[in-house]
Amino acid sequence: MITVLSGGGGGAKFVDGLSLLTKDFSVIANTGDDIEIYGLHVSPDVDTLMYTLSGVIDRKKGWGIKNDTFYCQKYLKSLGYEDWIMIGDKDLAVHVKRTELLKSGITLTEVTSALCKRFGVDIPLIPMTDDFFQTYIELDNKTIHFEEYYIKRPEGRIKKIIYSGKEKAKPSDRVFEALESSKWVILPPSNPLVSIGTILSLKGIRKILSEKKVIGISPLIQGKAVKGPLVELMESSDFEINSFGIAKYYQDLLDIFIIDSLEVDLADKIKGELGIEVFSTNTMMKTRKDRKRLCNFVLKRMENK
Ligand code: GDP
């Protein structure tokens, strides 16, 4: 059994590739991006993972349901609602269902299981916590929710990443069960600071990971993010903006780190200074074939350890 800690971008593409090779894994999803929109509980990473694993994802966009329409949102806009986040009609229906189920008193974990069943997802998809947890970005002049930052990309230097709810939020029993039954934990090419960092910030997660074998894949290629504001977020930290910086962020957890072939010159530094075993390969996942190939490479490194 394997557990993958994941966000909804690079993480979802990786999980898709893994599902083409094995069904023997669970996914723990970041819920720091969760946000209330139009009074509904939107869980961006959980949904991207669920849509990806069920095959309904809009692969071109990387979010939402393929061939979705946006009639409801257009109408909501005419009634004065904001539309900075695009939500399709079918997607909206999922948020209505999630919100209704949450209001009936069941947990986000149970709601996610019910939705996954409806979407035919047979891989366990587990939200990192059932408690309130939201990531905020503190800029020079304002503090905004990470999802809003991600989409609007306002000007200004990032001063701090705030994990709101971190002190009280606990991972659910399902999170611990998945990790306990896993020999390996994979940190896919997700954003370390806001997708995986949120999961790692929860009580007990780092401890249990220290008892597991952990393999990570860098989300940076030649010091650049494939998508999203990772570089901007890293600029607010002391980490070098390349795969060495990512390896250092995960230093106390990683047994193996996979970097892109284009950054192979960093391998000796990662190995020498951080003591982590390093392999390089093409980590760019443009097609499903790329996803499968990268996952196969990762599984092979795990087999040999
Ligand atoms: P988010 O929830 O949308 O932020 O998605 P994730 O956190 O799961 O993934 C975002 C990170 O994935 C970014 O830092 C990207 O650089 C990285 N990423 C996306 N696609 C790829 C890819 O094909 N290869 C690699 N190596 N990284 C990727």
Automatic annotation (TrEMBL):
EC supergroup of this enzyme: transferase
Swiss-Prot/TrEMBL keywords: Magnesium, Transferase
Family annotation (Pfam families): CofD
Enzyme Commission designation: 2.7.8.28
Coiled coil stretches, renumbered: none
The UniProt record lists the keyword rRNA-binding: no
One example GO MF annotation: magnesium ion binding
InterPro entries: CofD, CofD-like_dom_sf, FbiA/CofD
Identification of the protein by name: 2-phospho-L-lactate transferase
Organism expressing this protein natively: Candidatus Methanofastidiosum methylothiophilum
